[in-house]
Specification:
heterodimer; A: 756 residues; alpha/beta; Rossmann fold; Dimethylsulfoxide Reductase, domain 2; 3 domains; seven-stranded mixed sheet; 30% helix; B: 197 residues; mainly alpha; TorD-like; 9 helices
Chain lengths: 756, 197
């Protein structure tokens, strides 16, 4: 209803006689938000200062950065000019970090779900109330079910302190789903084969040839990684890309092997077999540094070029060509192990094959090869050792140990085992789930199972920066300061080009700005819970700053010292090319690269890499494979306004001839439907291209956010994970295969079969 | 307008500012509500006044559980409208969200508001406070009029407050599920619109 009078008239006549308390008294009692300040002359906008010490976390490459800060407001991010890793550069995501900080959708205050899990109704609560409730609910579960009644899914640097606390509590099952379902099995396969985990330390910049299987550099944008790749190409390296799809890397390749998906191991075995049969492997290196060559040679002898060509659906001549290029350029060849390689549930053996091929070529710790990079070491913060009641030992309740499964698993309990126990209550009940920085809804297959598991909990506590999909299942939701607002991770590395003067650096993450609203860091939150659970005296550090300083002490450094060095401490390093010669061994039990691994045989697995067939697509469907979008880090950047503006959805790639037969054209809006009849909630745009095989459909992973509280990313593109209603658990590692589902296209609500 | 009005405009602005804070028993009590109801009534918003009046327990002190119920309902509503909610909180109470093309917090317009405060002798009391949050802007308006600086009040309203408040008001009127916030934004509109027009 419109008012009957003007403000002027109102103020002349109003008395508020009806009010029980004088207005002046009411307003005087509230704390003011403004205070007397000093006069700031016009032109203050120029007072922008550079704050050093930032370490990016828009992805996990962790480039070092600086912030331009004006009046406490972050106005720009740039690469730290002192960095010997990313230098002055930042990628699109790094630059867009500023839009994460100031995203209005971010979590701001602790909240309680007064609705139901999955359909939350939020109520802001105080930190005291939130921590009281978390502590009492966690404590209640421990008292009723024992510490094994809790489990943790976590991700990111800020989870280190919380997971250490939950370990102290005696929680036996913790998992980093985004590591398990990414490069977890790659790391473990490499560890058992080489004795160390090279990660992505492959010297592409100085390689004479590169072989990329399962890596999409260019779509997977890690700055120094991409620079390494591009520099290698500039310096004349021959590039071989094995991929069912014409990826960004394939566009730069001399040889694109348009391989049938799920047959990569057969391809690698045939290349190795051909190299051995033709005597063009590095005999000297193999003799000196490899274990079990003869048994290996015999075991892979059956995978001829002709056989592999049929399996892989590629010409025999191309397999030979690849082998020839590698042999001609050995040992200076980069055999890249890739990232996010949990595809078919048999990937451990494929990664072993990568490592064995590099060994046959002698491509270790030489220019172009896989490197064992020596980084500076830092310390850890530990909670004290603890005596549990009734001789409780967490190890006795670690699910994988109890069931004697997955002997080559990455650290922690396989994600799926935790989920299964949450649902079944067997072998004992798990009734409390702590999720810290992870988004398991998007990270691993069979979402309905994850939701069922979460609904079965007595208590779910989630800590995150943004209202990601998993937050919808929280009872208590805690807002964390983001990577630009907190201390935590200590980045350690070397100069990006192995051929340059050896240097090592340390860059601890320092805040560029203060957190807004009531966002807190993990040490503050966990200490609050620990105190309320009666562990005040056990708290190892009081602040994140103290945490980082404690870790730096081992390197003889401190935050103060590194601040004086503009956020990055640099010292003389060690030439990685000289490691093998210096150490005269690989840190495996044999002291050599394990072409033949007895440990695998002992556990009932093939001791040499082996190709296993996987089910073919049913009639009318194609295999769904996934990859990356160059401006996104899967789901975590989907709500970023700048990045979403650039790439708002994930095009569905389909072969052009196939599309023509199906009556589809480039730009059509489509959904997907999988072999179990599960249809994607949202749609995306069809990309019709000759650059993909006819038996696969490709889309970038991480799109199609479910939580409508993420107003920018919500419902944009198709969530490939929602199509994964089936998975294959790798028996060696417990990691979930994510390329084992099949889809067909849905247009205008009508499913269209993929022609044979 | 002069500063000798029967009811101080400075106090009214401050009441409106407090009313846009997160509901809390520290301020959401009988004294506050009775003033708000009276203001609504005297400004001609009879329906809204009656609506809020009927929500209040007759005696907030003795009807504590009822008061808690009202506060609890308002807390849920405040969280949904202004903090985080499925489908996104519909009305983030920050100017820059409406004034910047891609809806950021702490944007250039936020900085201009803070500079304006500083050029008039004020600053945010604590770095966690967002300068262009509605309650902060209302409090600043109250400080200006308390100093008799009505020209500056008009300038601030025209340049900074009204350009986004109008959209904010419309969203709250459309999206609110509790009568409190529509009543409050109508009253804010009443006290901030006419001096600009």
């Amino acid at each position: 209803m419109a008012p009957r009078m003007s403000r002027r008239r109102f103020l002349q006549t109003a008395s508020l006689a009806a009010a029980s308390v004088p207005l002046s008294k009411v307003v005087a009692s509230a704390q003011p938000t403004l205070a007397p300040g000093t006069f700031a002359a016009p032109g203050s906008f120029k007072d922008t200062k550079t704050v050093t010490g930032g370490v990016c976390e828009m992805c996990f490459w962790r480039c070092q950065l600086v912030g331009k800060v004006r009046n406490g407001r972050l106005v720009k991010l740039e690469g730290n000019p002192k960095s010997i890793d990313n230098g002055k550069a930042l990628c699109a995501r790094g630059n867009a970090g500023i839009k994460l900080v100031y995203d209005p959708d971010r979590l701001k205050y602790p909240m309680k779900n007064v609705g139901e899990r999955g359909k939350p109704v939020w109520k802001r609560i105080s930190w005291d109330e939130a921590l009281d409730e978390c502590a009492s609910r966690l404590d209640g579960i421990v008292k009723k079910y024992g510490p094994q009644g809790l489990a943790v899914w976590y991700h990111g640097a800020s989870a280190h302190y919380p997971t250490a606390f939950f370990k102290f509590l005696g929680v036996p099952n913790m998992c980093e789903p985004a590591f398990y379902q990414c490069r977890g099995q790659t790391a473990i396969a490499m560890l058992h084969t080489l004795g160390f985990v090279p990660n992505e330390d492959v010297d592409m910049a100085n390689a004479k040839a590169m072989l990329l299987i399962g890596t999409h550099i260019g779509e997977n944008v890690h700055l120094s990684h991409v620079r390494n790749f591009i520099t290698g190409i500039e310096r004349g390296a021959r590039v071989i890309v094995v991929d069912p799809r014409f990826s960004s890397a394939a566009a730069k390749a001399h040889v694109w092997v348009k391989i049938k998906p799920a047959t990569d191991t057969a391809f690698l075995l045939a290349v190795m077999n051909h190299l051995i049969a033709s005597g063009r492997y590095n005999k000297k290196f193999v003799e000196k540094w490899c274990n079990g060559f003869e048994k290996f040679k015999t075991a892979i002898g059956g995978m001829t070029v002709a056989k592999a060509a049929k399996i892989c659906d590629v010409p025999e001549s191309q397999i030979v060509e690849v082998a020839d290029i590698l042999a001609a350029n050995a040992p200076n060849v980069a055999i890249h192990p890739g990232r996010h390689a949990t595809w078919y549930g048999n990937d451990f053996q494929r990664i072993r094959a990568h490592a064995c091929l590099a060994a046959l070529l002698g491509a270790y710790e030489v220019p172009g090869g896989i490197q064992k990079i020596e980084r500076m070491s830092t310390g850890h913060v530990h909670w004290p050792e603890r005596e549990f009641k009734d001789d409780y030992d967490p190890e006795d309740y670690a699910l994988a140990e109890m069931e004697e499964k997955y002997p080559f698993r990455p650290p922690g309990t396989p994600t799926d085992m935790i989920r299964e126990t949450m649902i079944s209550g067997k072998p004992y009940p798990i009734k409390g789930m702590i999720v810290w920085g992870a988004n398991p809804i998007k990270t691993f297959p069979c979402q309905e199972e994850t939701e069922k598991a979460l609904k079965n909990m007595d208590f779910v506590m989630v800590t995150d920066v943004s209202p990601t999909d998993i937050t919808m299942w929280a009872d208590i939701l805690l807002p964390e300061a983001c990577y630009l607002e907190r201390y935590d991770h200590i980045e350690k590395g070397t100069q990006w080009d192995c051929a340059d003067k050896p240097q090592q650096f340390i860059a601890p993450r320092m805040p560029l700005i203060e957190p807004m609203f009531e966002r807190k860091d993990s040490v503050w939150i966990i200490n609050g819970i620990a105190r309320r659970m009666g562990f005040e005296k056990d708290i190892p550090v009081k602040t994140q700053e103290e945490y980082v300083d404690h870790c730096l002490k081992e390197a003889g450094l401190s935050l103060e010292k590194i601040r004086q060095q503009d956020g990055i401490y640099i010292r003389k390093g060690v030439c990685s090319y000289c490691h093998a010669q210096k150490q005269h061994s690989f840190p495996t039990s044999s002291g050599k690269i394990e072409l033949y691994l007895d440990d695998l045989k002992d556990e009932g697995f093939s001791p040499v890499p082996v190709y296993t067939r996987v089910p073919e697509p049913p009639r009318g469907y194609a295999r769904m494979i996934y990859g990356r979008s160059p401006v996104h880090s899967f789901n975590r950047t989907q709500n970023n306004a700048w990045l979403n503006h650039e790439i708002p959805e994930n095009p569905v790639w389909i072969n052009d001839e196939l599309a023509a037969r199906m009556g589809l054209k480039d730009g059509d809006r489509v959904a997907l439907e999988n072999q179990d009849g599960k249809r994607s909630v949202s749609t995306s745009v069809l990309k019709v291209t000759p650059g993909i095989r006819k038996d696969v459909i490709f889309l970038a992973h991480g799109f199609g956010t479910f939580n409508s509280a993420m107003t920018v990313g919500y419902g944009k593109g198709i969530d490939d994970q929602s199509m994964n209603t089936r998975t294959v658990i790798e028996p060696e590692t417990g990691c979930c295969g994510m390329r084992v589902n099949f889809v067909r296209i849905v247009k205008d609500g009508r499913p269209i079969d993929i022609p044979a | 307008m002069n500063s000798d009005s029967g009811v101080s405009l400075g106090h009214i602005y401050r009441l409106l500012a407090i009313g846009m804070r997160y509901p809390d028993s520290a301020w959401l009590n009988e004294g506050f509500m009775s003033n708000l109801v009276a203001l609504l009534g005297e400004a001609g918003f009879g329906t809204e006044s009656a609506g809020l009046s009927s929500l209040m327990p007759p005696d907030m002190e003795s009807g504590q559980s009822l008061a808690d119920k009202v506060i609890n309902a308002l807390q849920v509503e405040f969280t949904r409208l202004f903090i985080n909610a499925p489908a996104g909180c519909p009305a983030p109470p920050f100017g820059s969200v409406y004034l910047e093309s891609c809806g950021s917090l702490q944007a250039v317009t936020t900085e201009k508001v803070r500079l304006y405060y500083r050029s008039h002798g004020f600053d945010i009391a604590d770095s966690s406070i967002i300068p262009d949050e509605i309650s902060v802007e209302l409090e600043f308006l109250g400080l200006l009029v308390s100093k008799g600086e009505f020209d500056k009040e008009g300038h601030f309203l025209k340049e900074f407050f009204r350009p986004w408040f109008v959209t904010f008001r419309d969203i709250v009127l459309k999206e609110a599920r509790h009568p409190y916030y529509p009543a409050l934004v109508r009253l804010i509109d009443f006290f901030t619109s006419q001096e600009v027009e």
